From TrEMBL:
The Uracil-DNA glycosylase-like domain, residue ranges: 17-157
Protein name (Swiss-Prot/TrEMBL): Uracil-DNA glycosylase
UniProt-listed InterPro entries: Uracil-DNA_glycosylase-like, Uracil-DNA_glycosylase-like_sf
Pfam families on file: UDG
Organism: Paenibacillus timonensis
Amino acid sequence: MRRLNLIKYFSALYWIKPDWMFIGEAPGVHGCVKTGIPFTSERLIQERRLERHFPGTRFVVEGNKSEASATVVWGAVDRLAKPPVMWNAFPLHPRNKDGGNRTPTSAELRMGAYALSTVMDLFPGVKVISVGEKAKKVCKKIGVQTAGHLIHPSFHAKEFREQFETYFFN
């Protein structure tokens, strides 16, 4: 199901020809881990929040779990004419012993750089925005030119919205 969602996501983005790419840190346990799509949640998909940007594309999830960062990001993205490509510096979920989120290690981020460059190759010419400090550092380290940086919305939703407004509407 997650793999199929990701395939549908990239297929739809191919035809949309996005102008922007948001690079985050890693999939969250209540978001991408459950949906297969970065910066989403089961609830966003159940509520059909992505349909505005992906008409005719049906993503499938089993539950209805919400994820705070995904909700904030899509609240902002909904204002754009086209959705950005969303990806992570490390595309797998770095779990702690309890199965929750942890920060990716340097080795994991190095492994993720290959997947990141491959995804970037799929969308030539997109302008990149890093989301969160780890993503910012990874982009710098592997030579990804960014058009800007957004604070991660996990504990800074208000600041994320303000920065988003500045980049896209001022």
